Amino acid sequence: MLTDQELNRFIEDGVVTVDTPFTDRQIAEASAAFDRLMPFQAPAPGQAPRHRVAVTRYDDPVLLDILQHPFFEAVSRQALRAEAVHFFQTYLITSYPQPGVPFSFDQHVDIQYGLDDLRAEPRRMLCSFFLWINGVNERRAPLMLRPRSHWLIAENRERDPSLRGSAPRVAGVKLAQLPPLPYADPTPIVARAGQVSVATTATIHGASVNVDTEPRKAFLTTFVAEGVEIELPENQAAAKREYDPELRRHLRPDRAHIVAA
Fold it and tell me: Which of 18, 127, 212, 249 places its Cα 20 to 30 Å from the Cα of 67?
């Protein structure tokens, strides 16, 4: 669970990094699972290497035990002011080192909310978790994030009659296409292995280049309050409709409720 101060940071800044109940053994086993699922592969002749590898569905028991841990459900209920929450999406991402490449990062939002969405009870928004499977420093592909930018965007949407009251939908928008508002400077999110950054991807954020010597491994999952509809692009919605029943079957009977039937 989050303390009152941590919860306020999640709401106001859009991200807070906290300790978790996961053991060193669980994190080490998860790291080994990442290596099995997403090994670095030498590129074919004439092709560039893939330094960022992602998986969006899995049935590895080690990773499923993390996904179904009550911690994510409990924190989501608290952060979203909801009596019940459901699993929304999951991603596994390994960012491999890129020797000789200058540090750079992307900047975008995955979703935009209005003020009513952020203030509703339950909140009409996603609660995203970035569980760091190994330590993240300022060189090892940290998530770059502009604190409180989700509030500036929400306030701007409130002033636009065509956007006020529109339902939240997942749609990536680059910084250049967002309103020119007084956003904070990008901040690197650093953490120890086993910590989690609880975030909203309505903040301006982005992946950065790994200029360190070790890969960065991130376990991502998102939850939504029961009864709250978040629209997905059709390809993601189709993948979710296919994966959710399969995922539910793989979970323990006492945890299967986190995936909506």
Answer: 212
